[in-house]
Amino acid sequence: MPVTAARAKALALSLEGASEHPHLDRTALRTPRKTFATLARDGADINLMFDPDLRDFFCEQEPLAFSPVPGGWGRMGATRCDLEAVDEATLVSALKAAHALAAPRPRTRRTR
């Protein structure tokens, strides 16, 4: 069953520390550290900021729903998710994976 843009945004914003911000012609979904996804204004798709290994995994598992973003962003791991072709459970898994990559890194104590 397809996921609506409103539902995709709600799922993304339910992740710890997530917020939304304008981003060109899309809505950026961010952790305090960086963007983990961008939602198209028309609600047709959401781009997930994966690394190349995650991009390959999701594209292989669900080739009708996931594809690399064209160009350099796709080569770095950015992945387009067609909201008409993805089910909610798969989208949640993808959002969590992208969110984890963008999460703030734990602070380490420096010793002198």
UniProtKB/TrEMBL annotation:
It holds the Pfam family YjbR. It comes from Phenylobacterium parvum. It comes from the Bacteria. This is MmcQ/YjbR family DNA-binding protein.
